Amino acid sequence: MHFYELKIKTNLKAPIHFRKSPEALSKLIATALINSGYTEHNEKKPKNYIFSNMGRADEKGIYQGDKVFYFRTFKEDLAQKIAKSLFLYEDNIFKIKGVDFKVVPQKHIKEIFTQNPVFVVMKENGLFWTFEKSGDITTLLSALQDNLIRKYETTFNKKIKPENNFIEYLQIKNQKPQTFTYKGAKFFGYKLEIKPRDDEESQKLAFTALATGLGHKNSSVGGGFCVYKTLS
């Protein structure tokens, strides 16, 4: 297994708040895909890509000047089309200055830290999982696992049947949910620290989380974008 990662360097032509920048980045990526002729973007199935925010904002939560963000996917053709389409791209917010292309092979994952909040939409009521509305950690763990299984199986066209939840240890880093805005709506989520299990199936799901994001809203606002530590 391996995924493709783009390191995208941009100059911001206008300041933007970190809660609003994911929607702007999502529109940038969608525009690049449309311009490249990538038709799968319009199909009603998991997009199976993820992007980061632009690092640490200033004390007022604002991004400005030169910044970097990352894009990941299992699909080489998608990564190639994004890279080519973004080369020398410019609009009223972003002026792309460079794109670095990298292939990331699977290694044993020791820890995962979510850089963007993890958003989980509950099937029963369509609401985001929160301590206030649910507080049931078991429900959160199951939702994260089920989502990753679906992403793995649709990407590789293979079944995966882990014996246990892939998460051995989980810590929720913020008591109150963080919010991102998208098309006038607020998304509520949490930053997580995760230690995945060591078995083969769990490691495959953990690697899938790196490539496609944890939870939902990955391609819309970069929900669940992860950084990680490996054993080597």
UniProtKB/TrEMBL annotation:
Its name, as the record gives it, is: CRISPR-associated endoribonuclease Cas6
Query: Known InterPro entries for this protein?
Result: Cas_Cas6_C, CRISPR-assoc_prot_Cas6
User: PANTHER family in the record, alphabetically?
Assistant: CRISPR-ASSOCIATED ENDORIBONUCLEASE CAS6 1
From the UniProt record, list the coiled-coil ranges: none
Taxonomic lineage is: Bacteria, Pseudomonadati, Campylobacterota, Epsilonproteobacteria, Nautiliales
Record carries keyword RNA-binding: yes
One Gene Ontology term of the biological-process aspect is:
defense response to virus
What Gene Ontology molecular function terms does this protein carry?
Answer: hydrolase activity, acting on ester bonds; RNA binding
Family per similarity comment: Belongs to the CRISPR-associated protein Cas6/Cse3/CasE family.
Q: Which Pfam families match?
A: Cas_Cas6_C (PF01881)
Q: Which organism is it from?
A: Caminibacter pacificus
Entry keywords, A to Z = Antiviral defense, RNA-binding
Domain CRISPR associated protein Cas6 C-terminal, first and last residues per copy = 112-220
Q: Does the keyword Transmembrane helix apply?
A: no
